Amino acid sequence: MKKRTPISTIMTRNLITLSSTDDLITAEKLFRKEHIRHIPIVSGNEIKGMLSYTDLLRISFADAVDEEETDVDTIVYNMFSIEQVMAKNLVTVSSNTTIKEVAEVLAKKEFHALPVVDNNELVGIVTTTDLIAYLVEQF
């Protein structure tokens, strides 16, 4: 295992993002359609927050709905905005941060994804799933 491998080698680059003016119904549909658990909230290329599927589950009964269900009960989602639900005080890393350093951050914190930011521009996202896949590849 290489000790100085940068996170850019395993991060997701083709990001699915939303803006704070989008709604939670759109977010819910993206989570389900794309089978993802985190969506960066951006203004242009600048990250403003992170919305996780867990954030939505906290305010709804979406987890009680069949995973294959495409219709979402929108009553609760209409009561909140993305801005109200997203995490705002983000920890970010740069693309040259090592995989080991990212693993250390994620091991100490209570979140499962980190935005990758270079020069104030969102360039990727790295998740605990990315790290596990990398570790599995090493064996």
UniProtKB/TrEMBL annotation:
Keyword Ribonucleoprotein among UniProt keywords: no
Keywords: CBS domain
Ranges for domain CBS: 11-67, 86-139
A matching Pfam family: CBS
Listed name of the protein: CBS domain-containing protein
